[in-house]
Amino acid sequence: MIKVTPIDEEYIFEDGLIVSSTDLKGIVTYANRKFCEIAGYTKEELIGSNHNIIRHPDMPRVAFEDLWSKIRNGQEWEGVVKNLRQDGKYYWVHTFITPIKDEDRVIGYSAARTPATKEELEVAQSLYKNLLQQQEKKIY
Fold it and tell me: How does residue 83 score in pLDDT terms, banded at 50, 70 and 90?
């Protein structure tokens, strides 16, 4: 797995649609061209990797606990996420994740991401800052 060191520099994602799919364990099975472009990885680097390859350490664990809880139960999840590019820069997305089903059985997940709006960023940054502070208080 590629280890990326975050740097405090934003990569601006201004337009387009990032699409990816994973299996039940979060292993990338599909990545569109925009995902590769914005994340800074080749398709070959993404396919077969765990989707958390783009997880930014500034994201509170509880946000992903909520996400996984919902999608594993067949529900959709929507929110704003700070992601990590291969070059260490970060980018913000508004993401919508839905389970992929074969009849009633969940067989994977699909995510569509667009640029987050300024208003969404303000709300998310405030919320995540508070959640991270709470998370740090629980670590001894």
Answer: very high
Domain spanning 18-135, CATH class: alpha beta
Amino acid at 134: Q
pTM of the predicted structure, to 2 decimals: 0.89
Annotated domain spans of the chain: 18-135
pLDDT of 1: 57
Cα gap 31→85, rounded to integer Å? 14
φ and ψ at 84, to 5 degrees? -115, 125
Q: Measured between alpha carbons, how far is 138 from 102 in angstroms, rounded to an integer?
A: 39
First vs last C-alpha separation in the chain: 28
Give the max Cα distance, the chain: 45
**Strand pairing report for 28-31 and 77-84:** unpaired
CB 97 within 8 Å of CB 110: yes
